[in-house]
Task: structure prediction
Amino acid sequence: MMTPTAQGLMVTGGSEARIVTRHGDVLYCDCPDGVQLCKHLLAVGLHLA
Ligand SMILES: [Zn+2]
Result:
């Protein structure tokens, strides 16, 4: 599930909800582990494609 919020897209469905924000052409996720391309970014990328 992706829900637009004031901060960005909230991605739920995993263990925790994450906020994915877009800066120009670049997507960022607030995953704490520094994964460069996590499942949230993949989900949003597919959603926006
Ligand atoms: Zn993530």
In short: The helical segments are 39-48.
